[in-house]
Automatic annotation (TrEMBL):
Species in which this protein is naturally found: Mucilaginibacter myungsuensis
Protein name per its UniProtKB record: FAD-dependent monooxygenase
GO terms of molecular function: FAD binding; monooxygenase activity
Keyword presence, Glycoprotein: no
Domain of life: Bacteria
Amino acid sequence: MKDKKILVTGASIAGPTLAYWLNRYGFNVTVAERAPELRLGGQNIDVKGPAAEIARKMGIEEAIRAQNTTEVGLRFVNTRNKTVAEFPVESSLSMTQELEILRGDLVRILYDLTKVDVEYRFGEHITQLEQTNANVNVTFSSSRSELFDLVIAAEGIGSKTRELAFAKRPEFKFLGLYTAYLTITRSATDSSWARWCNAENGIVFLLRPDNHGETRASITFTATEDEYKGLSLEEQRSALIGRIRGSGWESERLIMEINKTSDLYFDRISQVKAPEWSEGRVAIVGDAAYCATPIAGKGTDLAMTGAYILAGELYTASTYQKAFEVYEQKMRPYVEKCQQLPPGIPGLVYPRTKIGVGLLNTVVSAFGSRPAKWVFSFFGKDKKAPKQEITLPDYLNTTDRSAN
C-alpha cells in the first residue's frame, strides 16, 4: 500500500508516532491538529515496556532521557506532610520510571522528528467526511476539501472525527473520579520526590517535579459522572476550589494556583471501549479508540504501540481492510489487559473518612517498611528487564509484503 495518501488527525503522541512510521514506510502523510499550535501542557508520563522499545526503534530514547523530569521516586505523605513511605525509582512499587518525561516534552520530540517529512496543519479539523470506494473526501474547518486514501483519528477521548465516521458509539466506562491538572510555582516544600497525599472526602493530591523549574500538580477525587459536566473555565476553578478547600496539607497553596493558572485541565476519568476501531477507510488509534485513563498508567504504551502496529500493518497488508483487521486482532488483547484494574481500584485508594485515610496510610507504611521492601526485592518486577507485554514485529524486514 505504499504511496497512499493518509490524513492523521491529532498531534499529541499517537498521531506523530503514527506519522513517523507511515512516512518511513513510504506513505504521503498529513497531520491535522485542531489547536493553533502544539499543545505542550500536561503531566509526567512514563515511556516503558513497548513504548520504550518503539522509542529505541525511532532513535529518540536518548532525547527522552535528556528531558527526564528529575523525579527520583514517590513519597506518600499525610496531611501534616510527614512521610508515610517512600519508593525510589528503582523500586517495583514506585510509579516513577527510568524514562520519565513531561507529556509536552515528548510531543515536542516527536514533532521535531517528523516535521521535515510530514505536513502539519495547525488550527485545522475535520467537519465532514464522505467515503467512497476509492477514497475519503474530507472537508476541513477552513472550508477546503481534499481527497485522501485513508483517515486515521489519533485524537482524545472525545474524538470528533470518530463521531463523524463511526455509526456505533464507544462505551465510556466512568471510574467514579474527576481529575484536575495544572502547573504551579515550585516552593520550598517541593523536592525531587513526587509527593502523594490522601485527604478526607475522597481526595488525592499529587505534586511532581519537572525539569523546567516548576511543579506539576494533580488533584483527583470521587464524584458522580455528571457532577461537574459542562462547566466553563471559571466554573471549573470555582468547583475545584470548593471541593478541596479546608482539606489540609497544601490545599490553600493549590487554591491560589488554581485561581491564577493558565493551563488548568479538569475532566471526568473514563475508559473508552470502542466496539470497532475502523469504519470503511477511517480508523482510530490511541485514546480515541482505547483510553485506559491515567489510573492504569498505560496511556503512552497504548498510544505508541497502537500507532506502530497500525502503520506496520498498512505497510505489509495487501489491502487497508486487512491492515485494519490485523491491527485490531493484535492490539485488542493488549488493550483489554491494560484496561483491567486491580479489584477495589480506584475506590480503595480514595477513602472518604479520616479513619479510612488513616488505614490506607498504615497499609502504605507497611509496604514501605524495610522488611517489606526486602521481600518485594525478591518478588517485585525488575524495571530494567520487564517481560515482553506485546510482540512488536519488525515490519521493515517482513518478507510477505505485497502491494495494494
